[in-house]
Amino acid sequence: MPQLTGEPAKKQLDEAAARLQEIGLKSGDSTLNEILSGLASTYKSPEATDKAAAEKLRASTISSFQVLSRACGNT
User: Fold this and answer.
1) Who's near 32: CB < 8 A, 6+ residues apart?
2) pLDDT at 40
């Protein structure tokens, strides 16, 4: 996974977080909204552009989508 450093990476993470929140709100599903909002918060965290953050963001994304998949009845 590429390193997430500098303003361009922070801008991209902020845009992704905003889109996740938008999708969660538009879904009308509280579980989906909660999962996507939590993931968006991780993307917006101050440490999100730290060099070690790429692994944390990857793990958080995978975990969130595993929860989402189980909530949708997929295992």
Assistant:
1) 23, 24, 68, 71
2) 92
